[in-house]
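tokens incoming
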């Protein structure tokens, strides 16, 4: 009896402590939300014209084929009613939950209670019925073009995912079980996490994906040895220390995207592409871009090319005393590298011996999953925001990328962090994913309007640095690597761009996996394989059907291609020279500049 009283007393003390914490956290929550700056409605969702088109299309189908609409409605009603009857019967007979409906496995419903508990089973199955009905209704809308249909499906899917029962405490058995196990402490911890994220982002809800205290750029990630040997207002140039006695004569210059930090290629020693390339005997240089503030509002792609690409190429040539470099461009940096090569062709200059393109789009007739964000409704809003602030805040890019994988990058982490009170994982890739950068206002609009929307580089030409540039002007040897499940740069679109280039020597490699994992795929892991073909003058589907599959990383295959274009072996070079003194140790100073606003 005494023990019971003691336990009760302890529980009461703990309850009072948690109530006190909730009161304090509630005050902090209100304060954090008060800092929220309203976001342009145009950046919050598609314009009303999409909904109007959908409504008109739905009613047109109703008028033209009412039997089909009624059939779907009756089917939904019938399934819902039958589901209710089955659940009641099973409960009355003591069977618990009724038989499962035929549906694909969904890891959101992994908890056994979703299958065995009458309440959770009923909620889950009714949600799946609702999802099916919405999907069918959207698919049956008539008189929509392909782009509008893709957008309608995407945003409808967002609503369906948002309304999943796992996203609500009362219908999430994992979160409820955790609350019972911890006597409510998990809910207090979750509220603490929620308030912290709101405070960190000025009232905006951006879920913390990784334990930021677990990583230090230059400490336990981005640790490859090297020096900053040049710096201007656009970038720092890193030269990495050799690990071999001799190196290839032609240096390797890597241009990463400026949407994120360069150290995706140097996360840890075991999966660092930079270290691997150094170990293969290349003199490796990497551009580390500035994180723009409002003073960069007028910076365009022209500036990235002149003060970024061309300057970096010339500085590397000077340091290494060579006439040419081998260049690499990743994602948007590959697109801009292609523009740079076209410009050099127009000028009759040949400082690039070969170019490697990672997950690069140059023909934007198919923008993959990004199509849904490239309508005028969104782009008009982005332009208004970028011109008002001088830059496009990294928040918007992070949110856009996250919504492309909302269950993995928004709802799943939010459930763990806010409902279950868990600390974010110490995961280097997710840490990098959250370390995004701003985009200059003019550059962001130029990229979205002229390339993404109007596809000028592949269709008619785009004016850059006083020249009209076309994809056919890219004539240097090309090796392009695309990724099979890339949701940012669809591989078929990447293939079509490379196919149109004027280069006589073109190699295309298709890696398994996505935009990041397919590229950062070291041979030591033996994880993802790749496809190759000797020809490229065919449709992407035909290329894929005829391509040869090779298990393991594409890195060694690329190394073979690159080595043949990298000249003779010479003694390993030291970092910098008399005209390029060491300014800092790698990873430099620009890589740690935080976003503004």
């Amino acid at each position: 009896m005494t023990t019971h009283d003691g336990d009760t007393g302890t529980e009461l003390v703990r309850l009072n402590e948690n109530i006190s914490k909730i009161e304090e956290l509630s005050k902090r929550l209100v304060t954090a939300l008060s800092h929220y700056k309203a976001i342009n409605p145009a950046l919050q969702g598609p314009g009303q014209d999409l909904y109007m088109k959908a409504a008109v299309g739905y009613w047109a189908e109703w008028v033209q084929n009412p039997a089909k609409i009624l059939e779907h409605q009756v089917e939904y009603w019938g399934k819902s009613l039958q589901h209710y009857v089955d659940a009641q019967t099973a409960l009355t007979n003591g069977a618990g939950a009724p038989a499962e409906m035929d549906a694909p496995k969904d890891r959101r419903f992994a908890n056994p209670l979703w299958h065995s508990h009458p309440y959770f089973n009923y909620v889950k199955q009714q949600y799946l019925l609702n999802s099916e009905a919405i999907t069918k209704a959207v698919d049956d809308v008539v008189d929509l073009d392909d782009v509008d249909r893709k957008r309608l499906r995407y945003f409808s899917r967002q609503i369906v995912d948002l309304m999943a029962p796992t996203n609500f405490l009362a219908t999430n058995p994992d979160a409820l079980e955790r609350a019972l196990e911890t006597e409510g402490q998990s809910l207090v911890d979750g509220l603490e996490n929620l308030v912290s994220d709101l405070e960190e982002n000025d009232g905006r809800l951006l879920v913390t994906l990784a334990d930021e205290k677990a990583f230090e750029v230059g400490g336990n990630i981005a640790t490859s040895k090297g020096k900053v040997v040049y710096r201007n207002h656009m970038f720092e140039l890193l030269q990495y220390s050799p690990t071999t006695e001799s190196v290839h004569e032609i240096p390797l210059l890597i241009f990463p995207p400026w949407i994120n930090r360069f150290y995706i290629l140097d996360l840890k020693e075991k999966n660092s592409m930079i270290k691997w390339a150094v170990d293969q005997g290349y003199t490796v240089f990497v551009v580390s871009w500035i994180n723009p503030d409002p003073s960069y509002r007028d910076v365009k792609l022209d500036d990235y090319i002149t003060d970024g690409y061309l300057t970096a190429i010339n500085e590397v040539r000077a340091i290494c005393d060579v006439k040419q470099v081998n260049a690499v461009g990743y994602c948007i940096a590959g697109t801009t590298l292609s523009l740079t090569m076209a410009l050099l062709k127009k000028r009759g200059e040949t400082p690039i011996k070969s170019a490697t393109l990672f997950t690069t789009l140059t023909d934007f007739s198919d923008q993959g999953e990004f199509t849904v964000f490239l309508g005028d409704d969104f782009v008009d809003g982005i332009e208004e925001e970028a011109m008002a602030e001088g830059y496009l805040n990294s928040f918007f890019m992070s949110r856009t990328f996250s919504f492309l994988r909302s269950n993995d990058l928004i709802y799943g982490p939010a459930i763990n962090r806010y409902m279950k009170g868990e600390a974010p994982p110490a995961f280097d890739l997710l840490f990098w994913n959250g370390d995004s950068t701003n985009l200059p206002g003019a550059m962001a609009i130029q990229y979205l309007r002229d390339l993404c929307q109007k596809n000028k580089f592949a269709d008619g030409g785009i004016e850059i640095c006083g020249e009209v540039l076309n994809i056919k002007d890219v004539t240097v040897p090309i090796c392009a690597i695309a990724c099979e499940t890339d949701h940012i740069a669809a591989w078929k679109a990447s293939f079509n761009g490379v196919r149109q280039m004027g280069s006589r020597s073109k190699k295309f490699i298709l890696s398994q996996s996505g935009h990041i994992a397919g590229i950062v795929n070291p041979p030591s892991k033996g994880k993802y394989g790749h496809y190759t073909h000797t020809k490229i003058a065919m449709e992407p589907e035909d290329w894929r059907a005829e391509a040869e599959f090779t298990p393991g990383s594409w890195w060694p295959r690329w190394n073979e291609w690159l080595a043949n274009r990298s000249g003779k072996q010479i003694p390993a070079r030291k970092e910098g020279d008399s005209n390029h003194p060491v300014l800092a140790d790698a990873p430099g100073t620009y890589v740690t500049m935080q976003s503004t606003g």
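note: The longest strand covers residues 352-358.
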